[in-house]
Design goal:
Elements lengths: L13 E5 L26 H11 L4 E5 L17 E5 L10 H12 L6 E4 L12 E3 L1 H10 L2 H8 L12 E5 L13 H4 L6 E5 L10 H8 L5 E4 L9 H11 L4 E6 L5 H13 L3 E6 H6 L2
Parallel strand pairs: 1-2, 1-4, 2-3, 4-5, 6-7, 6-9, 7-8, 9-10
Helix pairs in contact: 1-3
Length: 291
């Protein structure tokens, strides 16, 4: 890898569904995932959009004209995994839905350029640079971004494609258990990173801290393992970097407890920067404080 390589497109950091727009009955509804039971109604196009958006694991923001029935997939979703901006709750001081959307993204720390906006409205009138996706391509696009699909690819079970990674969390220890509000990572960690890389050389990948971390990031950040292999001459971090760069990764956050080990950070950060990734070092406390 070198700087001259074409950079794969990075994973978006948020999804916005514009459900204020025209009749979505014009668009095809995907086949239901299972048989219809009892009085259960067939899945509508809007319900499918919301379900697919939530299955990406990314923060999903819905622009809606008013209250709406949410699909079963949204039952346990809470902000920032699911945020609804309703037109009927707006007033002059709050602004229009798109202004509210941009303010919400700003609060989440997500640039509009990193946001997939599913809409058929004319985006040329907007100053913000969203990644616009028309409704006719929405289901396919959201399915490509699904957490399950990219987890399988990043773990080596299928081909890696662009838009599968953006920000990678690299723990230098697993001392997060005693950090206040560590459970906030389960909901709001998705605003900060979308992939976790555990290096066997640095942390005990079979240790007690691994399962709690996997549980906290389940549904939005696959946990990858950089395992040492005497039969493979390639450095585990180099191998992980190669896969993550192909997936579009552009940033690494190294994290540890207060007495941060400088030596491993310097070594790995130098390798990551050589591959054109930005790097920074944080404590578990400072990371969780951003949630």
């Amino acid at each position: 890898m070198n700087d001259a390589m074409d950079r794969s497109r990075s994973r978006p950091r948020a999804i916005c569904l514009d459900l204020t727009a025209p009749d979505h009955a014009l668009y095809p509804v995907p086949v239901n995932r299972g048989p219809i039971i009892g009085s259960q109604l067939p899945e509508t196009f809007e319900a499918a959009l919301i379900r697919f958006a939530l299955e990406t694991g990314l923060p999903a923001i819905i622009l809606s004209k008013g209250p709406r029935h949410l699909p079963e997939a949204a039952d346990d979703a809470q902000e920032p995994h699911l945020t609804i901006v309703r037109e009927d709750q707006l007033n002059v001081t709050k602004g229009e839905p798109l202004s509210r959307l941009e303010r919400r993204l700003h609060r989440f720390g997500i640039p509009t350029r990193d946001t997939v906006f599913v809409t058929d409205r004319d985006m040329r009138s907007l100053s913000a640079s969203y990644q616009q996706v028309p409704f006719r391509k929405a289901i396919a696009t959201l399915n490509d971004l699904s957490h399950a699909n990219r987890s399988a690819a990043l773990k080596g079970y299928r081909e890696i494609t662009p838009q599968m990674a953006h920000t990678v969390l690299v723990p230098l220890d697993l001392e997060f258990g005693n950090t206040p509000d560590a459970d906030l990572l389960a909901i709001s960690g998705r605003l900060l990173f979308d992939t976790v890389l555990l290096l066997e050389e640095v942390v005990p990948v079979a240790g007690f801290g691994v399962k709690p971390l996997e549980k906290l990031v389940a549904g939005y950040a696959p946990v990858l393992y950089g395992l040492e292999d005497e039969t493979d001459p390639e450095d585990p971090f180099d191998d992980a970097m190669r896969r993550l760069r192909c997936a579009g990764a552009k940033r690494m956050i190294f994290v540890a407890k207060d007495d941060i080990p400088d030596a491993p950070f310097t070594r790995y950060a130098d390798q990551a920067r050589a591959a054109s990734l930005t790097c920074d070092l944080q404590t578990w406390g400072s990371l969780i404080a951003q949630c």
